[in-house]
Amino acid sequence: MTIAAVRTHRLSAPLHTPFVTALRRTTTVDTLVVELIDDDGRSGFGEAPQVWQVTGASIAGAEACVREVIAPALAGRDADDLVARCAEVQRAVAGNESAKAAVDVALHDLAARRLGVPLVRLLGGTALRVPTDVTLAAGEAVELAAAARQRRSEGFGVLKLKVGTDAGGDLERVRAVRAAVGPQVRIRLDANQGWTPREAVRIIRGITDAGLDVELVEQPVARWDLDGLAWVSDRVELPILADESVFGVRDLVEVIRRRAADMVNVKLAKCGGLHTARTLLDLAAAHGVGTVVGSMMESQIGIGAAASLVAAYGTTVVSDLDAAWWLAWSPVRGGIRYDGATVLLPDAPGLGVTSVSEAKMQTRG
What we know:
- This protein has twelve helices and 15 strands.
- The protein is α/β, with parallel strands linked by helices.
- The radius of gyration is 20 Å and the shape is globular.
- Substrate binds at residues 24, 135, 160, 295, 297, 320, 322.
- InterPro entries: Dipeptide_epimerase, Enolase-like_C_sf, Enolase-like_N, Enolase_C-like, Mandel_Rmase/mucon_lact_enz_CS, Mandelate_racemase_C, Mandelate_racemase_N_dom.
- Mg(2+) binds at residues 190, 218, 243.
């Protein structure tokens, strides 16, 4: 069966709570959904989230890439030849990882639908339940403590605290959250490149000395500063997780070579899709590097693909798959659901998505 058509859908949906990090503030999920249709009329879906400050991807840019470059390369090609089609997507254009990820996931979704199996089974797994952390958006200590108590009451046992907006107050923020939730809840930090190497070492050592029991620290310094990342990793006891420093395989090879981080956060929209993500997970495992699968602010489509990857391949700690949980409502029908801190994968072909409805783009907050 061949790929008969490629459609794109611009989606925007509001969050129930503003999402704030050291890099950005947003009140919406803005994303491009790619739909691949075979000549039997089956559809496979993928998405390219707009995240200017991390990937540099825009909806307009991703749509142009898909329509003008990738779609012509796939037109009339065999949809069942999945490895070859994914390789063609990677070769079609330099960069544009989010656009590639959208098409890559859509190819996987379509292949699973054609076989009549959930995406997780196509990837080699069977689990339909995947645990996730939940993010505490950056804010003041009192606000963070209140949010932490609320998330604990909702069943979340792993909290990802966004820091890096104000190095001078970050230790007190962590202290407030730990006091609010007690010793049973795991806390991890994400500085989103917000600290200098010296600030990172000072704050992380302060957390350790205060006995605040933090699980790991994600991307403490600028993505390009691998020397600084290695310098921090060598001087603190807590595991350091590389996120923005690792987009693709070459980035991870360099992190491993320099011993710059203990762990890596694999995100489909950074690396170009499931095809590359599996290579990153295998490479990390082969070198004793810990793994997390994360996400941008995405809908059930992107989270469903990422959760299916985790269900099939596993990670060394609980992954970061809460993005669609932040949606006040979603233009995507079907797909994953949340049960407290668990992502529920549908026992349906592919991602289980039945339709998408385009929404007018809203002003970013």
